[in-house]
Amino acid sequence: MDIKHICCIGAGYVGGPTMAVIAQKCPHINVTVVDINEKRIAAWNDEDLSKLPVYEPGLDKVVEEARGRNLFFSTEVDKAIDAADMIFISVNTPTKTYGKGKGMAADLKYIELCARQIARVATSDKIVIEKSTLPVRTASAIKSILDNTGNGSEVKFQILSNPEFLAEGTAIEDLLDPDRVLIGGDTSTAEGKKAIQALASVYANWVPQKQILTTNVWSSELSKLTANAFLAQRVSSINSLSELCEKTEADVNEVAKAIGMDSRIGSKFLKASVGFGGSCFQKDILNLVYIAKTYGLNEVADYWEQVIIMNDHQKRRFAHNIISTLFNTVSGKKIAFLGWAFKKDTNDTRESAAIYVADELLNEQSKVAVYDPKVSEEQMYADLDYLNTRSSEENREGVSVFNNPYEACKDAHAIAVLTEWDEFKTYDWQKLYDQMQKPAFLFDGRGILDTDALEKIGFVCYKIGSGKNPEI
Ligand code: NAD
Ligand code: UDX
């Protein structure tokens, strides 16, 4: 089957970059990315490439090459659905905030709306692809909607699962050179196999055949949740040991290096931190826990829930270390945050540890001053308001946002590094020190700074997982 028109519903962090790369690598396919968010679509169409709604290194170049040629961004959802042979559903699947499964299950209302819209609009056969991360067995619900809520025309649907493994900050690299592309489908029928083949041949334009893995649809759906659970588990594992290192004069970076050299363990994803963030890890593990519970698998659920419990502890522990080190009171004291994004090289702040650390400090009446090279002031306030801990006015009173790190740190009692942006390593730390209150405290929540050199300047340093931290 020759694919000529692709539609992607959802122009977010996944839909936008993924489709841009497909369009770049497949000039013979027309790719239309649609969204109900008009502002987002307008930003994707902005002449000024620095205004794209997603910041990802290299994304602007890819968009510049393909946009207007065979890559289009539009709010005309129905039109794009009907014109397409292949439809990717890449809408958000956040944790439910209401009703049954509140705080744990994935909210599938956007997915269901998409399925109903496709069924209502389609007048020709479609391959419908789950690009969003979904609970295992969602494909059967999508199939039931597509097959039973149609518009009366004899349209046939094939459903595939094709989860996305890109990480933010390296999305373009990950898309151009993926470890694997996973395609799950109905391997028991000729139509199912044909659909799998059609999607595989899109990727085959740039991904080597041996890296395109096909499975049954349930394995594919579950593999995505499993991959994120395993990755997050590694971070919680090393973070749990960071606390033990701090008590025993061991150094977590040395421990990580020593265990990472064992090829069975591997060296990646062993960087101790203030806690993992991002839109995926917490949401997907909670979803996994919820699914296990619905099958009555309580031990399985408890096992994975511990990854989240550990992460919450790590964020709180970091904030409490700041408070106790600053003589048990931060009331009225300026604490400067370097970084707000959940990791470097992205403007995404969803579930960022910085939000929770700020929240704890604001509870103690601290004055938080933030500098992040990519995150807007508006976004930071929105993140804090979303927690509902205090009023919007109180958040604005407690937090000030700077577009210059030296201004943010001026007169501060402490600097806390919350994101591992490379530029933080290049600052004139003597200058920062000179402008601060004394003693000048430094809390490196990412383990990126040379704290020995900073101590020579005069800083009192706390580094995640270092056995040399000051006695608290
Ligand atoms: P996002 O919130 O950035 O984007 C989703 C977009 O879908 C939004 O712009 C929203 O307006 C749009 N949308 C929702 N309902 C719609 C509808 N009915 N019609 C048209 N548009 C609609 O989300 P994201 O980060 O791109 O994530 C999308 C999915 O991919 C999620 O399931 C997520 O778990 C998964 N995922 C995300 C990442 C990541 O790094 N962000 C990585 C892998 C997988
Ligand atoms: C993750 C998965 O990596 C990706 O495959 C999936 O598609 C989406 O979810 P993402 O959340 O974008 O990607 O970033 P990732 O690099 O995984 O980092 C997640 C969080 O863990 C960040 O807050 C990061 O700082 C933290 N982290 C990561 C650590 O604290 N230590 C590490 O060693 C690695």
Automatic annotation (TrEMBL):
The keyword Oxidoreductase applies. Keywords: Oxidoreductase. Its EC number is 1.1.1.22. This is UDP-glucose 6-dehydrogenase. It comes from Mesonia oceanica.
